[in-house]
Amino acid sequence: TTPRDLEAAAYVLRMGADLTAVTDTLKRPLDPAQITLLNDLLHNSETVYLDGRKVLLTTSTYDRYRGDYAEIVHKLAELEGLDAVIAAIALDDKVEIIGRSRRAEIDVGQLARRFGGGGHAVAAAATVKGKTLIEIREQLTEWLTARIEAHLLAGHVMTVPAKVVTDTSTAAEVEMALTKYGVNAMPVIDGRRRYRGLITRETIQKALFHHLQSKPVKDLMQTDAYTAASETPFRDIESHMLERNQRFVPILDRSKVIGVITRTDLLRALHRDVLAAAHARSKGNEPPVSRHTRNVRGQLKARLSDELYTLLKSAGELAERRNVSAFVVGGFVRDLLLGRPNLDLDLVIEGDGIAYARALSRELHGTVETHDRFGTAVITVEGGRKLDIATARTEYYEYPTALPTVERSSIKKDLYRRDFTINTLAICLNPTQFGVLLDFYGGQRDLKDGIIRVLHSLSFVEDPTRVFRAVRFEHRFGFRLGKETLSLIKGAVKMDLFHRLSGSRLLTELVLLLSEEEPRQAIVRLGELDLLRFVHPKLKPMPQVGAMLKQIEDALDWYRLLYLDRPIEAWLVYYMALMDVLPADAVEETLTRLTVPQRQATKIRVARAQARELLRRLERRPALRPSEAYHMLRNLPDEVRLFLIAKSRSDGVKRQLSAFFTTYQHVKPTMTGTDLRTLGVKPGPIYTIIFSRLLDGRLNGELTSEADERTLVLQMIKKPQRTAVRKQSGR
After folding, report:
1. pTM above threshold 0.90
2. Helix axis angle, 520-528 relative to 543-561, nearest 10°?
3. pLDDT digits (tens, 9 = 90+) for 409-461
4. What's CA 13's distance to the chain center, in Å?
5. What CATH number belongs to 295-449?
């Protein structure tokens, strides 16, 4: 090295040269001993994420290499795309600690000094004697946990001054301001200049599309957006912007907006990351997967049957061959992460979903039904399993509550049209990315926190049925409605959007909600949110309804334990309870408004018309004979009988109704028509009379054997038929 070399190095450093880039560029081949050490370090490594930074902590006892350990550690960082590597290598009676960092906030020089060594922030080393490798590793872990420092603060990055709008500004005025200043989001302040929320161009455009030009921005703004102070570490802001997919962060000082951090500010602060990714791609490599993705291949393998896992693999391989991207999305992914069973497969294709569905159907030897208008298809394979296939699409609504109009798009935009963040997760099926989980909108965070959150503030304006879904998911998963989502629901109720919904769509959501396991609390929640009145204006929360719903839950639980192998529509029993508090004309109005199918409507009318009278008759005669109870109840649907069990306050009546399910309906005479013919009874109306008498005798315990039945039949046929008829009519 000559003096001129050093002068040149000093010059380029003064001009801002990045030594990290130099070391990244230098490539040196490894010899066999170095490769062995590298493999040992990889085998013993542990990845730690500190404030979103990927740090590798590793150890080795391989003592046959006596060269430059720092070179091996650098190679390890290069291979794994790490922010920092800390390696401890046991050699004879000492342990060598070597640190390499690409982040100033991870100061490995400080670490080395902690162990009596030296160096600087990005490269350092130390030699420790008298301690085991295990002790050193524990101390390194403690240091990593406790010594990461904030390097960049929000105040260093933010844009000032911030352009703002007042909360009384209309949507049209905000649109003009966004255009005037050439921005896509603005903080909203009140008359005292206090921060109140955030409004985006996307929300304003949707509002204008729905003719809400005069709507004040306070009714449209996002109120739960992440905000920060000027002292907030930049890494915290970076994390929130990525996880929440938030493009814009207001910086506050005691509720006053003092600046903003935009996506441009974020990219500027992260320029080294951007350049590193571009450099990797220029060499044909992909940069490390960003933090809103992870691989869940292991969970797929562990929780799915071999058959289903193979099916997903096959779907991905076909997508690769057809040069499209395939993703499994929605509830399947959500429930996979929650550890809940869900075999409903929804696949989204970036490309021609219809053509892909036809090809997959042929490969699986199934049948396919296509819907070209929506770019969707349903494949049915052997065993009846169905796969829903859809072309990745975006959608817009011609007017509030309308069905959506769809256009082909990307997986990211396809997921944006979903109802809630927890349903925006997707898993890639293509072989090169199989198992990679995509999370653009913070779905994983909301699953972890147990929050139901919409993606934008006009979500319920576009589709009010999402409100019922929100309540359903809140109940099913034990989650809670996000603060802003709850506020938006209340706003949708005030706007009276639900009256514009078609009855069939409202019924579909109501049936799904009432079909949930023990939906009583969900129904109560509908009442709390003032949503029951959209089923009928006279339907309001009442204590007696809540009590009956609890009785219905108990009755249905009891019924399921009978294992009668006779399915019932549980939702219908709950619906009967809601209708029970309405006058007859209101019930009819509801059946018409919701377009309840005739079969279910008939059961509801039966429950409404006969329930009170039947219960009165049963309660007036506590000593009712089993045969009498049987004939009173035999023609009722099971759902109505269960409703009567829940509605009755008499233990005696409940016992009679329960006995119908457990005993009465299973009682049959032993004798058959063949037996009657053998006794010389000619077929005719007399058969009905005889079997009715035999059944009554069995129900009442008067006949306990076939011999008893035969004796009764012989007595009946010895008498004139008219006598038998008279006895029957007088029964």
Report:
1. no
2. 160
3. 778 888 988 999 999 999 999 998 899 999 888 898 899 989 999 988 888 98
4. 51
5. 3.30.460.10
- Map residue 674 onto helix, strand or coil: helix
Q: What is the arithmetic mean of pLDDT over 660-682?
A: 92
**What DSSP state is assigned to residue 216?**
B
Its CATH architecture, for the domain 12-146, is: Roll (3.10)
Q: How far from 134 is each of 42, 139, 141, CA to CA, in Å?
A: 17, 9, 11
Residue 81 confidence (pLDDT) above 80: no
Residue 178: count other Cβ atoms within 10 Å of its Cβ.
20
Residues of the chain with CATH 3.10.580.10: 154-268
Q: Which of 380, 376, 369, 472 is nearest to 419 (CA)?
A: 472
CA distance 605 to 580: 10
Tokens standing for residue 705: 């054997």
Question: Tokens standing for 264?
Answer: 């441009």
Quote the CA–CA distance of 390 and 378 in Å, as a whole number. Answer: 9
Distances (CA, A) of 590 to 254, 462, 499, 663: 51, 24, 12, 36
What confidence tier does 288 reach under pLDDT thresholds 50, 70, 90? very low
Query: Which residues are within 8 A (CB) of 121 and not within 5 positions of it... i.e. 6 or more apart?
Result: 101, 104, 107, 108, 109, 110
- From residue 32, give the alpha-carbon distance in Å to each of 35, 38, 43, 111: 5, 10, 17, 30
| 667's tokens | 């009682």
Domain(s) labelled CATH 3.30.460.10 in the chain stretch across 295-449
Domain 154-268 grouped into CATH 3.40.1800.10: no
Residue 392, classed as helix, strand or coil, is coil
Cα 282-262-247 angle, rounded to 5 deg: 85
Percent of the chain at pLDDT above 70?
87
Q: What is the CATH number of domain 535-666?
A: 1.20.58.1960
Tens of pLDDT along 459-498?
A: 898 899 999 999 999 999 999 999 889 999 999 999 888 8
Residue 203's nearest CA partner among 174, 244, 226, 225 is: 174
Q: Take residue 680 and report the two structure tokens written for it.
A: 């010389």
